[in-house]
Design brief:
The chain contains eleven helices and 16 strands. By secondary structure, it is of the alpha+beta class. It folds into two domains: 90 residues, Beta Barrel (OB fold (Dihydrolipoamide Acetyltransferase, E2P)), CATH 2.40.50; 308 residues, Bira Bifunctional Protein, Domain 2 (BirA Bifunctional Protein, domain 2, 2-Layer Sandwich), CATH 3.30.930.10. The strands form three sheets. An eight-stranded mixed beta sheet has the order 7-10-11-16-15-14-13-12, with helices on both faces. A five-stranded mixed beta barrel has the order 2-3-4-6-5. The protein has a two-stranded antiparallel sheet with strand order 8-9. A hairpin with a 7-residue loop joins strand 3 and strand 4. The radius of gyration is 28 Å and the shape is globular.
Length: 468
Amino acid sequence: MSILLPRVRGALSRTTPSRFSLSPAFPRASISTIPTNVSGLLDLKPSEAVENVKIDGYVRSVRAQKLHHFVAIGDGSSLKPLQAVVPADQAEGLTIGAAVRLDGSWVPSQGRHQSHELQVSRAAVLGPSDAKFIQTHTPILTASDCEGAGEVFHILTENERRASAADPARPFFRRQVYTTVSSQLHLEALAQALGNVWTLSPTFRAEQSDTPRHLSEFYMLEAELSFTDSQSAVMDLLENMLKRVVSDLADSKVAHELLNPFVDRSPDLAPAEQVAQRWSGLNQDKWPRITYTEAVRLLEAADMPFTHKPSWGKDLHTEHEKYIAIKVGKGYSPVFVTDYPRDIKPFYMKAGETDHGISSSRGTAECFDLLVPEFCEIAGGSMREHRLENLVESMRARGLNPTSSEDPTKNLQQPDNNLGWYLDLRRWGCPPHGGFGLGFDRLMCYLTGVQTIHDTAAFPRWYGRCDC
């Protein structure tokens, strides 16, 4: 943060600018020693107003009133922020975490909690920040397999690896530990304390897939929304976020290089026209949405030689997703596929309330995948099952705790059950909530035209390859 206090004029005027006059008129001061940070400005306590103050910093808090917003600005040089009084018509975009530049006068304050404050005449947002979500950090090592597909890397110490039945090693942890396949379960816990949260962290999958779309170690952008019972709201958030990314990048130098067909390109990149079409598709007014059941009917009616025959109750394969993206998204727009069969989705997803024309014995989950043309799935999300009894039933149905009991939650509370802590989240004040995970490396691959996801990582790891 930098603070600029140019030499000010003498006390020739006895009034503050007519545009903004919250405090009484102050004489103008001439300051020879110029503070360079918030701490220095807070130490500056002139009896007269200092004009033409210019300050860069981060918004710590905002109190909005009809005519003015009281904004706390900090830069790390002081635990105490300075108070800026911003006219309501200048306060757009002043959200917590935003990087801002404020112009105004440093004047004695009428408030009780600070001696001086910055009366702002102009506010500019240098870097916006969405105040509705809080960034969090989730663990890499976990005892919980979120997806339940068994595609996890087990953690063993060298002593444990060398141990035998005749000479067993003492376990480092008291239970089996894995590298995380998703931050979702821990993110749900944080959401109950903090509200809407997000994280961008490494994720590990032991998938035996050697394709241009798969990595064993990659980054996942995940978000959880508290107090929402609408799957549409989760999809809207994801759609609007990606549209904002493309919109904000559109005028950047990198975008011009990627989208300009006359710029020399590496042969490893897709043609500029193809990349430009991807960007344009992401900016479509409303991305189409289709249920899994509708998608299967579309695939069954298609006159296509699919390697895997489409059938209700089975996962959609890459060839199916590509066809849906072409047919529904016109090969241009991203497509949401919603309400997959419950039996092929993880235990934590909320059961669907409508059957979409299928028999009641074949239930669905309130979930979705986001498909993009050419690249297929880049994100997935769902409503989470927030009701304890329903979650226990879902876990038992998947064999997570096959032991029967008069108390359906008894065995799931035992210390040796790795998901007992997750169930506890449902026991006290768990609101309806949902979230999504976005493959960050896949998004980078799609936006840049890089042909293989391996080239988006400095040190890529995939099936059979971890060479350094």
